[in-house]
Design brief:
With 93 residues, the chain is an alpha+beta fold. Helix content is 61%, strand content 17%. The protein contains four helices and two strands.
């Protein structure tokens, strides 16, 4: 594997992104995400569909509230994945 391919693989596996609309422009923000695999798809979908986007203040309030829930979810998943016994059942469900 070439050095470029290694860099792209590292970038692809270790980052995530969100899209934010600011001043009428859609901006894509990339950030490092070590525990990307720990955030379940259903949690992402729930976040996407249940955030109140009726006003800027409601969006911000919900983002902050959801960030705590997401951190709790990742902490819980990290605990499950750190135990070999429970990891077996999670992997083969």
């Amino acid at each position: 594997m070439s050095e470029d391919e290694e860099a792209w693989t590292f970038y692809k596996e270790g980052t995530d992104s969100i899209e934010i609309q600011k001043d009428g422009l859609l901006q894509k923000i990339h950030f490092r995400c070590k525990d990307r695999i720990l955030l379940r798809t259903d949690m992402k979908e729930k976040f996407n569909y249940e955030v109140d986007r009726s006003s800027p203040s409601n969006k911000l309030r919900d983002l902050v509230a959801w960030s705590w829930d997401i951190m709790d979810e990742i902490t819980y998943a990290r605990r499950i994945h750190s135990n070999r016994f429970t990891l077996f059942f999670v992997k083969y469900r």
